[in-house]
Amino acid sequence: MERLVGAKAPDFSLPMISGDGEDFGVARLEDYKGKWLVMFFYPLDFTFV
């Protein structure tokens, strides 16, 4: 498996919700250009399993 730490992420945009659950928006990778960014992915969040 290829190591992804330190690799550049492809451009993306995705729907998001604020931490307080009140506001919706769109997150774009370009909004964080020049800043450090840590991305977390939880594939089972918001699913009804």
UniProtKB/TrEMBL annotation:
Domain Alkyl hydroperoxide reductase subunit C/ Thiol specific antioxidant: 5-49
Keyword annotations from UniProtKB, A to Z: Oxidoreductase, Peroxidase
Molecular function GO terms recorded: peroxidase activity
Assigned EC number: 1.11.1.15
InterPro entries: AhpC/TSA, Thioredoxin-like_sf
Enzyme class: oxidoreductase
Listed Gene3D superfamilies: Glutaredoxin (3.40.30.10)
Presence of keyword Methyltransferase: no
Pfam families linked: AhpC-TSA (PF00578)
Protein name: Selenocysteine-containing peroxiredoxin PrxU
Organism the protein comes from: Andreesenia angusta
